[in-house]
């Protein structure tokens, strides 16, 4: 018998709404949910790989307790009861001996955030942290310091834009289906894509203009663009007068940064910068300087992202058709918000492990995000206190944060490592206990509010019964909390009960999801009034060139640009995603592996020739942090200072037979360097030597 069910994909964090067809209870096809306009209707290759992942047998099939040394891969099966007792007893004794703050809980943002946060609060630890410091943290910090809101408050009306400027934002490969659809529609409408990238990505080659920039110099490029736009009064005066605080300070600041100055620094011709500035000025406000996503690249990332926010302000492109917009949610449709479990539990106070806070190394970083790559330093220095237990949910810090060897040494100082994962991550493989979560098609999760111009609520429902002895997050955290003596804080019976509680103030009933899997909250697009109604949440309620938040914390809002340098004889390792892998978590998928087994290292043809290297040669890639072997691919399509590999290869969990050891892991070559203000790991402050083997 054929049945159709609606859910959400979780092969990456875009969570595309899906329609799953079952034949006699077995998944036959997964497509996009046709009821959701442009964000539905299609899946990417990774989404299609979900079916293989469901029936994959190389993942943990029941709770595992380590019996050999850490990382040896020697495990024994355990019942849930035994695994919970093992974790709860050790957490309790660590808490008694070292205090709750010695327990760290790291997680990648997901629909289950609320259970992880509530659990950490229940433990009494101030130390939960997300994966964001190795993704968009600097961008987020820049948005908060400049606009008073986080990066997620903004969306992009790409379909109606005239120009979309992408700084490495590789929409066609580092993709979400919705954004790809939007950009393709925009291309049909005649949009001009300008891609700034040292490398000919698949987005760069489909662009109107590919700006082959010298890696790490986007800030200089933007300073010169602003110089040209301001000098020639190409900006939106009305918008600037209304919404930009200290505009004159910005004008004075960019004066020395002429296109000629930028040409030397960025290797982009001054005439190109002038031409683009003029074209943007003519097309405004329908110009989007896409603020991007994965900001974890350079030490000056924070200022680079701020310059993008300023450029959008000069174009007047906030809250306009074809520009950026504030995402709208339940509150904008006259409803009350959904309830969240953590808000019912008091947040623990006290110093954090990651040096966030006034007077600390990262005074303006959002502590609700945390800084994952400070793990090693915290364990090494034992400052402000020793850290002893690490619980990880849906995150693989041992693969996703820089300097694997250093982190392993640091993890060895922990008394307890617990991983809650659907698969064998590198971190799970190194843990003491693995609690396997059920595949996303086998479980329900909390309702998601998908904010946008036309917001919706989306619900993940169980599509098939679990095949293995796994449990969903709502149950794992509830049952662990029970064992730890704070089960009363997890008061719901099951996920349906929890979701009904979440909706209880909204006026929406859970049965409304039955028909389409989603509830549409608005018929028409919602815009705020551009003259009076924009929701910047800075103290001045404007876009702050001189940022109150920065100045209050002793940080200079407009510091001088510092020239970028590459050490003699070395090349900069730049990174990115590829369309078939999701970070580190797709490399053992049989469907995906059939299409892309390994990936070569891209080198500039001339730079490679100087080293006697040509396409197909095996090369040794090394530096003071680590080394590895790759196959060279030489091309004109990359700046001579750079070499490129995508993240996702060189995995180390022995149980993953397809992925194990295939390819080069960038995290084994990167040192721990931070953007000194934004808090992100500056992963591309990484230089390597390459030799032919
Ligand atoms: N298929 C797939 N899609 C994904 C993901 C995935 O894993 N797989 N992950 C999702 C996630 S978590 C994220 S954060 C996003 C990331 O998406 P993007 O922000 O688009 O990032 P990346 O793919 O990391 O890098 C994109 C480009 O940045 C370029 N680049 C390197 N150095 C510089 C530089 O100095 N200046 C400029 N301008 N460009 C530079 C690289 O050459 C690369 O082409 O993708 C999301 N989508
Ligand atoms: N060196 C280097 N480091 C990087 C990057 C890079 O390019 N180079 N990219 C950075 C970026 S942009 C990001 S976003 C991060 C990503 O880093 P992570 O957040 O660590 O992402 P993944 O590598 O996808 O690992 C996520 C883990 O979650 C598990 N998982 C997936 N679905 C579920 C689920 O439903 N439940 C549970 N419990 N687990 C699940 C997967 O099996 C996997 O082990 O890495 C960052 N780190
Ligand atoms: S972009 Fe692809 S992998 Fe990510 S949620 Fe959508 S279909 Fe799934
Ligand atoms: Mo990311």
TrEMBL record:
CDD domains assigned to the protein according to its UniProt record, in alphabetical order: MopB_CT_Thiosulfate-R-like
Keyword Iron-sulfur: yes
One function term, GO molecular function aspect: oxidoreductase activity
Lineage: superkingdom: Bacteria
UniProtKB keywords: 4Fe-4S, Iron, Iron-sulfur, Metal-binding, Molybdenum, Oxidoreductase, Signal
Transmembrane in keyword set: no
Pfam families: Molybdop_Fe4S4, Molybdopterin, Molydop_binding
Domain 4Fe-4S Mo/W bis-MGD-type: start-end pairs: 2-58
Family: Belongs to the prokaryotic molybdopterin-containing oxidoreductase family.
UniProt name for this protein: Molybdopterin-dependent oxidoreductase
Organism: Desulfomonile tiedjei
Lineage, uppermost ranks: Bacteria, Pseudomonadati, Thermodesulfobacteriota, Desulfomonilia, Desulfomonilales
């Amino acid at each position: 018998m054929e049945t159709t069910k609606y859910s959400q994909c979780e092969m990456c964090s875009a969570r595309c709404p899906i329609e799953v067809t079952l034949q006699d209870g077995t998944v036959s096809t997964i497509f996009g949910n046709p009821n959701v306009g442009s964000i539905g209707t299609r899946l990417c290759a990774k989404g299609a790989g979900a079916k293989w992942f469901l029936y994959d047998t190389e993942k943990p099939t029941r709770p595992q307790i380590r019996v050999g040394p850490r990382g040896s891969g020697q495990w024994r099966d355990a019942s849930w009861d035994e695994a919970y007792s093992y974790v709860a007893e050790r957490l309790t004794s660590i808490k008694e001996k070292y205090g709750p703050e010695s327990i760290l809980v790291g997680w990648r943002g997901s629909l289950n955030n609320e259970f992880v946060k509530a659990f950490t609060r229940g433990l009494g630890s101030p130390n939960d942290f997300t994966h964001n410091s190795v993704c968009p943290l600097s961008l987020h910090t820049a948005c908060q310091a400049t606009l008073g809101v986080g990066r997620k408050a903004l969306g992009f009306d790409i379909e109606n834009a005239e120009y979309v400027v992408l700084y490495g934002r590789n929409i066609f490969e580092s993709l979400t289906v919705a954004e790809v659809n939007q950009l393709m529609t925009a291309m049909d409408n005649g949009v001009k894509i300008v891609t700034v990238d040292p490398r000919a990505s698949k987005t760069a080659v489909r662009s109107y203009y590919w700006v082959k920039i010298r890696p790490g110099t986007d800030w200089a490029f933007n300073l010169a663009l602003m110089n040209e736009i301001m000098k020639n009064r190409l900006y939106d005066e009305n918008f600037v007068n209304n919404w930009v605080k200290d505009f004159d300070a910005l004008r004075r600041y960019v004066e020395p940064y002429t296109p000629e100055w930028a040409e030397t620094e960025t290797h982009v011709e001054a005439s190109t910068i002038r031409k683009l500035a003029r074209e943007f000025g003519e097309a405004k406000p329908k110009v989007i300087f896409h603020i991007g996503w994965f900001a974890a690249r350079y030490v000056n990332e924070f200022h680079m992202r701020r310059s993008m926010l300023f450029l959008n302000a000069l174009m007047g492109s906030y809250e306009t058709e074809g520009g950026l917009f504030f995402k709208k949610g339940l509150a904008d449709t006259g409803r009350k918000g959904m309830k969240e479990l953590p808000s019912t539990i008091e947040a623990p106070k006290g110093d954090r492990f990651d040096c966030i806070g006034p007077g600390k190394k990262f005074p303006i970083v959002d502590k609700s995000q945390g800084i994952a790559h400070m793990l090693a330093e915290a364990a090494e220095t034992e400052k402000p206190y020793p850290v002893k237990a690490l619980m990880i949910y849906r995150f693989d810090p041992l693969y996703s944060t820089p300097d694997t060897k250093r982190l392993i040494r640091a993890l060895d100082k922990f008394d307890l490592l617990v991983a809650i994962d659907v698969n064998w991550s590198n971190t799970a493989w190194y843990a003491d206990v693995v609690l396997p979560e059920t595949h996303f098609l086998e479980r329900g999760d909390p309702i998601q509010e998908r904010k946008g111009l036309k917001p919706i609520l989306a619900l993940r429902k169980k599509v098939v019964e679990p095949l293995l002895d796994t449990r969903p997050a709502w149950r794992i955290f509830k049952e662990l909390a029970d064992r730890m003596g704070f089960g009363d804080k997890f008061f719901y019976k099951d996920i349906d009960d929890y979701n009904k509680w979440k909706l209880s103030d909204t006026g929406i009933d859970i049965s409304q999801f039955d028909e389409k899997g989603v509830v549409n909250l608005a018929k028409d697009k919602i815009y705020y009034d551009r003259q009076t109604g924009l929701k910047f949440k800075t103290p001045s309620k404007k876009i702050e060139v001189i940022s109150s938040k920065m100045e209050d914390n002793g940080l200079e809002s407009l510091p001088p640009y510092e020239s970028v340098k590459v050490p003699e004889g070395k090349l900069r390792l730049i990174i990115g995603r590829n369309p078939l892998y999701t970070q580190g978590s797709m490399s053992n998928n049989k469907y995906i592996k059939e299409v892309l087994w390994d990936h070569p290292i891209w080198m500039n043809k001339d730079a490679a020739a100087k080293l006697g290297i040509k396409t197909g040669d095996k090369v040794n890639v090394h530096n003071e942090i680590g080394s590895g072997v790759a196959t060279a691919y030489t091309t004109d399509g990359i700046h001579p200072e750079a070499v490129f590999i995508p993240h996702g290869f060189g995995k180390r969990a022995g149980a993953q037979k397809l992925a194990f050891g295939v390819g080069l892991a960038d995290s084994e070559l990167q040192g721990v360097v931070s953007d000194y203000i934004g808090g992100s790991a500056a992963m591309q402050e990484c230089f390597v030597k390459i030799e032919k083997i």
